[in-house]
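[Meeting: bench + compute handoff]

Bench side (C.D.) handed over the final construct sequence. Compute side (W.E.) agreed to return the predicted structure before the next meeting so the bench team could plan truncations. Sequence as handed over:
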Amino acid sequence: IRRIIHRRTSGDGLSWGDPEIVLWPDEEDPWDLQFYCLAQYLLGPRRMGIIGRYAVEAQTIDLEFAFSADGRIWDRPVRADWLPKEEQFGYGSMLLPMGGLVGSGSVRSFLFAGFNHNHQEAAQGKFKPGVICKGSFQQDKLVGVASLAGRQSQLRTNPFVLTREQLVLSG
């Protein structure tokens, strides 16, 4: 079984259309990647999604950004886990996005759940307490990278189409 993301629509909340697949791992993804969940948020006319990336072999779940204009076609410009797991803070194995976007102006925050047990342990009922965490991002920035003191950072993305006249890099 491969986990993918699909959507259903309804005009009245009672009758629903057939499932429509909107996100699935493809040939550019690791062989064992599955999409566990998608939390999506409206940011102006577009949607930002946070995908739960399930690595079957490692039994871990990480987070990845995705973007869409219509909720059907999603772009994944940085196909990677972007939030480091921090075992000492209670989330060393699995991260799950939660609903709701908090904040106004240019800084937005989202909530995620973190756990120090892997997926297989959870399936076997070997739960450890989880934590609720807050992550923040600047609305007008696609990605931020910070270097350790005296070191350099690099960011490599898949090709993507600019929807504005310019791309601004700020340091």
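W.E. noted at the follow-up: The radius of gyration is 17 Å. C.D. will use this when planning the next construct.
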